[in-house]
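Thread title: Can someone regenerate the structure for this chain?

I was given the following input by a collaborator and told the matching structure tokens would be attached. They weren't. Posting the sequence so someone can regenerate them.
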Amino acid sequence: MNQRKKRVDLRKNRGSSPRRRNLKPLDEGQLESLAGHERVSGKGDFSRRRTIVSASDTELLREVEAGTLKPGRVLSPRGGGCLVDLGEGLIVDCTVRQVLKAQAVEGRTVVAAGDRVLVRPMDDRQGVIEHVEARTGILARKIRERKHVLVTNVDQVLIVGSAATPKLKPTLIDRYLISVLQGGLSPVLVINKIDLVDLAELQPLVGMYSQLGYEVIPCSTRTGRGLARLRHLLKGRATALAGQSGVGKSSLINAVEPGLNLRTLEVTEETGKGQHTTTSARLWPLSMGGWVVDTPGVRQLDLWDVIPEEIEGYFVEFHPYVRACRFANCSHIHERDCGVKQAVARGQITRQRFASYCRIRLGDGDL
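Best answer:
Regenerated them for you:
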């Protein structure tokens, strides 16, 4: 493992002044008696630094005594700590070692739902996270220009939309697809509440994404349609559910694993928007094997670490036509002789997906 040293702030729980108080001027005799090597330093606690060892940019590593630690998995971050499953039914409330928190200044989420960690137990209810293992399968977004990891170490993401209310947002689905693919995860589209509409109305949307190679599952928690396929996908795998508030993510989890009884709320009639019943990501074990993560609903998803020039790469239907563009740096928006726009005009790329690409590229939101 390639390790590198890193300097971070040393922050104590409490500190004293670096200078003696009540200093008085020294006379000539006292000055001569001072040791030649003695000096007064103005360096305080918050300007001191310490060296830690980091294995990579995706791993937060501190040297610990492995024999005193227990492996666990973070179920849910909460306040300054998190709930950690240590196995055999033991769940402890953990704090995070301060030196790990110091790395959050770079915009990194120190501990997220799904993290595999090493914990130093304090008793049968509390512990301290000493080490966070390398992450794979990350779903993240941007909040206030910083990276916010929603969940990590999962295999797939169910991107959930609603056939009724709240209104389906294709551009939000496409933003999720970009974030999921960037995190090295497999996306599955789930259209919930199909009992409230004529299924024929959804066929253009289902057909469009199916032709692009994505699995699309129309389902209903009321009629049970599509739930058997969901159970098959979830069994033995770590899966995150993501989407707008009010689309029924928690209801789907309850339908697949009735014993969880997750809290749900109806969509607000006045606004047609969902209410936030899940405030932070939570990892739940499934009786059939595997894990499921209920993530907070969003109304807009800002992409993290995706520059505008990279967006076309996540629209797979663009790939055959990019080489026909006149300009190598074509944005496919305003340029002439654009192979992508010509494909749209011929009906080889759907206008809906092209409009979604333009909104994401121009940063116009998810409507």
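The chain is about 20% helix and 25% strand.
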